[in-house]
Amino acid sequence: MTKVTVWNEYLHEKESETVAAVYPKGIHTCIKDFLTSDEVSVRTATLDMPACGLSEEILADTDVLIWWGHKGHERVPDEIVSRVQNAVLQGMGLIVLHSGHKSKIFMKLMGTPCDLLWRDNDRERVWCVNPAHPIAKGIPPYFELEHEEMYGEHFTIPTPDDVVFVGWFAGGEVFRSGCTFTRGMGKIFYFQPGHEEYPTYKNPFVQQIIKNAVEWAKPTAHLEKLACTHLEKPTESKN
Question: What is the pTM assigned to this prediction?
Answer without folding.
Answer: 0.92
